[in-house]
Amino acid sequence: MAARRRASSRATATVTATDTDKSKSETPTKQEHADPPIAPPKSGLIFKLCLFFAIPYFYLLFYHYKIESELQRSILINAGLSLAGFFITQKMIPVASRYVLRRNLFGYDINKKGTPQGTIKVPESLGIVVGAVFLVLAILFQYFNFTADSNWLVEYNAALASICFMLLLGFVDDVLDVPWRVKLILPSFAALPLLMAYAGHTSIIIPKPLVPYVGLEILDLGWIYKLYMFLLAVFCTNSINIHAGLNGLEVGQTVVIASAILLHNIMQIGASLDPEYKQAHAFSIYLVQPLLATSLALFSYNWYPSSVFVGDTYTYFAGMTMAVVGILGHFRFNPQTGLLTGTNDGTLVNFFLRLFGKMSEGSLCAALLVFQTCLPDI
Questions:
Q1: Closest CA to 289 of 249, 327, 316, 329
Q2: Using CA atoms, how far apart are residues 320 and 327, in angstroms rounded to an integer?
Q3: Cβ atoms within 10 A of the Cβ of 369, count?
């Protein structure tokens, strides 16, 4: 995440080594008093986003397509658990923020350098809250939907193991600040449970723009599919982590992608007559609904101006979750103008700044998210 600068680990170590006795003598009351409360969630924004998405989603689920009542029931139970997860996550984030600040897990918003907001300690790694709530919801959902002899249970638990593994590795990265050459291979370890448990088809759907060149709509990869799964896991986890650096961008793009996945799954379920195919897309919904709900709770604190940072914990977690779902179913800031200026770095963020000119951080993030929303239709 480029939108924040961590407190120097060397300075932290010096403080820890020299001021141990002093810190011990401080009372908990003083420490708690030193940690200012974070800004309240931006509930109005979240309500508008939910309304914008929920109307077409539930229209497709209950009215446009004739979907079996049993499948609708499972999706609704999952949606209910996801809604509960939204409120739990929103309540837990301020609590977790105080704890991470006490452990010096904070950063400074470098996009606001030179302004009062650029000197505020922003709690880091709050993605751990989202990941923890997501895993609890996903585990509880098994009680309502899977039986002991369910064919999907092994792959479902393998998917959760991979997501949990990646959540842990992301938090380790936030704490230890792992170098990039190591970050690139971390997802390969987290993908192992999924790779070992996978026993499904080995075909992929060719993107429509490439069909005329390939000559096929569906391509069977055979044993190469496992390699494809491995590379997809590495790509998804790092793609969310790389396309970052603005308040709300990491979580925002996850919300956009998760919403698109849900709509796609509903349309595929409604248009298919194959029960196994429907279950595969329902499997995807069962993981994406909790991801979307918990991410929206985090987005209410992370949207510009951000009061928390998500950390690599969240970007790795979100990326791995979407990889599982797909498999199984630098700029400058001007404190006088408050605008960001693009550099020559070859990122999409800087490309937008060079193309459209100087923009505020909030406007830039919104433009990028709108672009991502419209991209599938281009």
A1: 329
A2: 10
A3: 18
- Residues 258 and 329: beta-carbon distance below 8 Å: no
Q: Is 9's pLDDT higher than 50?
A: no
CB 296 within 8 A of CB 50: yes
Peptide bond between residue 305 and the one before it cis (omega within 30 degrees of 0): yes
Task: Express each pLDDT in 249-300 by its tens digit.
Answer: 999 999 999 999 999 899 989 988 888 888 888 999 999 999 999 999 999 9
Over residues 205-234, the mean pLDDT reads 84
- C-beta neighbour count of 40 within 10 angstroms: 11
Q: Which long-range contacts (CB under 8 A, 24 or more apart) does 88-92 make?
A: 88/133, 89/129, 89/130, 89/133, 89/293, 89/294, 89/297, 89/298, 90/41, 90/297, 90/300, 92/129, 92/133
Instruction: Quote the strand ranges of the chain, DSSP E.
Output: 5-6, 106-108, 122-123, 203-205, 218-220, 331-334, 339-342
- Lowest-confidence region among 9-23, 311-325, 358-372: 9-23
* pLDDT at residue number 19: 43
Distance between CA atoms of residues 74 and 282, nearest Å: 9
**What 3-state class would DSSP assign to 360?**
coil
Mean of pLDDT values over 28-54: 77
Residue 353 neighbours by CB distance under 10 Å = 22
Place of tokens 């070859």: 346
CA distance 137 to 294: 10
Q: What is the 3-state secondary structure (H, E, C) of 215-257?
A: CCCEEECCCHHHHHHHHHHHHHHHHHHHCCCCCCHHHHHHHHH
d(CA 252, CA 248): 5
Residue among 41, 106, 10 at smallest CA distance from 303? 41
Beta carbons within 10 angstroms of residue 44's beta carbon: 9
pTM of the predicted model as reported, rounded to 2 decimal places: 0.79
Decide if 347 contacts 243 (C-beta within 8 A): yes
Query: Does residue 15 surpass a pLDDT of 50?
Result: no
Please report which residue ranges of 20-120 form alpha helices under DSSP H.
20-25, 28-34, 43-59, 69-102
